[in-house]
Design goal:
Blueprint lengths: L1 H11 L2 E4 L2 E11 L2 E8 L2 E7 L2 H8 L2 E2 L1 H4 L15 E2 L3 H26 L4 H27 L1
Helix pairs in contact: 4-5
């Protein structure tokens, strides 16, 4: 269903708003098991890569018509160059297994603390390290969003 909606948007040439920028769907194709979608954002070609049709549907929800967000006499301001955007930030996809490992380690530490209260100091240090890694990842994602 999402591919049909995407195709209709491409055929209509309708102007949309994506993150405050003017967007027009141009084309899509299935490459190596994922969908590459070409969108002109602020009149600059941008390629979005989506792994599944479900991801396309979630992504399409970020597009609105100008009338849906614009009040009468309000001007939409668009800026900054477009770039290649993946369905998930690279920082997440590259570190996904590490995050799963960290989560598993934390769950193991919870069990160790329950079994041996003497392990609390070491568990606190592990938690502090994990928090630092998570905060760095959040900062990297925020920097990607601002580009």
């Amino acid at each position: 269903m999402s591919l049909l909606k995407l195709q209709k948007l491409i055929e209509s040439g309708e102007t949309l708003i994506y993150r405050g920028k003017v967007a027009v769907m141009k084309s899509f194709e299935n490459k190596h098991g994922s969908f590459e979608i070409l969108v002109d954002i602020d009149k600059k070609p941008t390629i979005f890569t989506k792994q599944t049709e479900e991801n396309i549907g979630l992504w399409l929800a970020n597009f609105t018509t100008p009338e849906a967000i614009q009040e009468p006499d309000e001007t939409v301001i668009v800026s900054s160059p477009a770039k290649r955007v993946n369905s998930l930030p690279n920082i997440y996809t590259e570190n996904r297994t590490q995050m799963q490992t960290l989560s598993q380690m934390l769950l193991e530490d919870i069990n160790k603390v329950r079994a041996d209260p003497g392990y609390v100091a070491q568990a606190k240090q592990v938690c502090n390290s994990v928090n630092a890694i998570v905060n760095i990842t959040k900062l990297q994602i925020q920097m990607i969003d601002r580009e």
